[in-house]
Known about the structure:
Low-confidence stretches: 48-66
CATH topology: Jelly Rolls
Number of strands: 10
Oligomer: single chain
CATH architecture: Sandwich
Shape: globular
Structural class: alpha+beta
Number of helices: 5
Amino acid sequence: MDQLAAASGVSRAMISKIERGESSPTAVVLGKLSAAFQLSVSELLSVSEVIGAAEVAGAAESDAGAADAGSRVRRAADTPGWRDPDTGYRRRQISTAAFPVAVTEVTLPAAARVPYPAAAYAFIAQLIWVQSGRLTLADGPVRHVLEPGDTFELGEPRPREFRNETTEECRYIVIVTRKGTA
């Protein structure tokens, strides 16, 4: 636990509270922990989903009748979500842990700001696709304003902040894959 605290910059006490279920991590804390574990935020949040993946697959097969092996149906009600207790930022994991890329729907409330450290992007490739509202993305020192339909492929790792500088919520899709290690 001491090593994780040192690597993430998250206090040992906070990590312990999260482990015991006494505290829900904020988006900032998740970003720091994901960087320390070298997992995307989606991977970090989906650890508990892996346990239920077999049940979802079984339900999908019975739902689809003679479905092809490996095909899955996951109902909206069964799609895991997470809410940042500080900002109200919401994530809904669209893809399952078995899918080769992580697809996440994010809803960023009005006036919310969610920063992530550069280390959170060191091992992943990420695409942002705005669905509704306006997303301001601080990509290091550069500021990008994205409108519905706009996409942004994140480049080299740098600190980033996702901002909603409007009075309406913003909804966007995040598509993440691990970078090759070769």
